[in-house]
Amino acid sequence: MATTDARAATDEKASAQLRDQVETLKEDVGQTAQLAKTAAAESLEDAKEKAREYVQTGREKKEHYEDALLTRVRERPLQSVAIAAGVGLVIGLLGRR
Q1: Contacting residues for 73 by C-beta, under 8 A, at least 6 apart
Q2: CA dist., res. 88 & res. 81, Å (int)
Q3: What angle is formed at CA 63 by the lines to CA 60 and CA 68, rounded to 5 degrees?
């Protein structure tokens, strides 16, 4: 009987240790998941900010080229019309094929 009681006590102690380890593991997994979620959110915000910067840079370049083109057209209107006609002709010829 003493052996059975000792074995039961040992089993209960081992079960308690196992429950504690499982609980610790759950907490660790939860913390790791939270860290991963935070890191992913930060990476997403960084990517969004970089995309905003690229869009802004693109808009600035577009405005610069648009202004340069308008200036060029105003300075040389006949040349601009001839270039536009030539491009239209090429596109028309390519469109027929």
Answers
A1: 80
A2: 10
A3: 125
The answer to whether 80 and 72 have CB atoms below 8 angstroms apart is yes
Percentage of the chain with pLDDT > 90?
76
Mean pLDDT along residues 8-26: 88
H runs (alpha helix) in the chain: 2-75, 77-96
Q: What is the pLDDT of residues 48-95, one digit of tens each?
A: 999 999 999 999 999 999 999 999 999 999 999 999 999 999 999 998
User: What separation in angstroms does the CA of 29 have from each of 17, 24, 32, 35, 90?
Assistant: 18, 9, 5, 10, 64
Written as six digits, the tokens of 69 are 């083109």
Residue ranges per structural domain of the chain: 2-96
